[in-house]
Amino acid sequence: MKIRTLRLLTKEGVANVYKNKLMSAASMITITTTLFILGLVLLIIVNVITNLEARKRELQVIFYLKVEATRLEEEEVAMFIENCKASGIIAEYQHESREQAYENARMNLKNESLMEGLTPENFAEGYFVKLSNPNESDQFIAKLKLLSGVNSQWISYPKQELERISGIVHVFNYAAIFVLVVLMIISILLISNTIRLTVYARRKEIEIMKYVGANDWFIRFPFIIEGMVIGLIGALIAYLLTSQAYGWIKDGLNNLFASIRIADLQLMDFGQFAIRILVVNIIFGMTIGVIGSFMSVKKHLNV
Amino acid sequence: MNAIPGRGGIVLIKFVDATKIYSNGAVGVKNITVSIEKGEFVFIIGPSGSGKSTFLKLIMHEETPTEGEVYVNGYSVHNMPRSEIPYLRRSLGVVFQDFRLLPNKTAYENVAFAMQIVEALPREIRRQVPLALGLVGLSKKAKAYPGQLSGGEQQRVVLARALVNNPAVLIADEPTGNLDPRTSLEIMELLDEINQRGTTVIVATHEKSIVDSMKKRVITLDRGEIISDVKRGQYTNED
Questions:
Q1: Do A211 and B161 make contact, defined as CB atoms within 8 angstroms?
Q2: Whether the Cβ atoms of residue A14 and residue A224 lie closer than 8 Å to each other
């Protein structure tokens, strides 16, 4: 097909959106509704996952040096930790010197007599480390064990907690994919139904085109452009609705969380996913429109 | 276009022992053998159910013969790949009883559509469409939509659409079936003019007076079979 013809048919498809206002509106509402629901469900899931990931980052690797570690070994560990911080493996850490450990112990013990005869030299240096990526804790711990100053028996990490949270994140990830697929199927069915009505109303037109000698693509192309335009407009409307609705939901829930003192639960700003939601909407909307058109024109092409 | 050489002129349409039996057992046409040459004007007549429509549908490849062969403009209709059907149809101009114009396009756009399908140059379209509309006497109604035109005017638009690509054959299925006698005669006169310009014209009709006055070749069908084929015939079939 020549470029000139494609341009002609594209114009035709765009014009048809307006010429068949009622059907276009019906299809658009269907796409907008599904994408709106899809957007909200995805936002909820993303929020849950983000909060869980934040929770994971709060988990600390706690380790102590050997009591008999030399100054050189202490410096080696300090250097290693600093390097990890610089390269972004460690998000943040706290250091507890022998003196602080001694002081902390003295303050925490009820019976000070237990401390008798002990000096800071009897205590070990400690580190409390939050990793940037908690899933890499194993590798980090393996590297720690290579340092001669670190007491490998005194390395602790709440691995089970991490796995539990990771498991929940997994479930939500699958849930997101499931919702995506189900909503996509539902909306394709809905859209193809609506477009089928449009095409049915215009089956005479298709028939005439066939009798005059138009080939399948010549007939199909404007319908596909039509579906694409409807999908695009529906997607944009859905995006606006989603951003509005999410704004209200976020404010409401954040107030609620604050009032019942779950301060560490925070819904994210819409701006953080705006682009992603927009892209998902546009891709979904246009795909749904195109597939819907394709499916419904097919039946009437066999003349 | 490879035409099939016949006895006299060039044969454009040829049925060889063609039979069409529909899936419900109804007989469309039975053992038809006939040739139509370039430049002929042929009436296909017969009572309803005699196979006139099937005859035309076989030419347009709306139906395929269950037995025998049909050749149109060098295309063998037998086992024709789906993708080639549009090309066959583009070599035919088709006129229907119920007009079949695209309702949301103007007269001009309806005629232009036939040219857009064959991917004609816009310059060609702008040149040819007014000519075709002029030929059928509708230059002044180019911007009207089908709904704003009378039956006769709509049929003229259809004729312009059928002619604009200079088809070798013009097929008309009851072209005057929905028109009053005066308008019918005007359409027939147009078809005759088109024929004079060299286009082969095939008209299925059951309007006795028109057939009798035109003195053209008349093929009479009855129950799917050809019962007569007369060079300068009359509407002999009494129904």
A1: no
A2: no
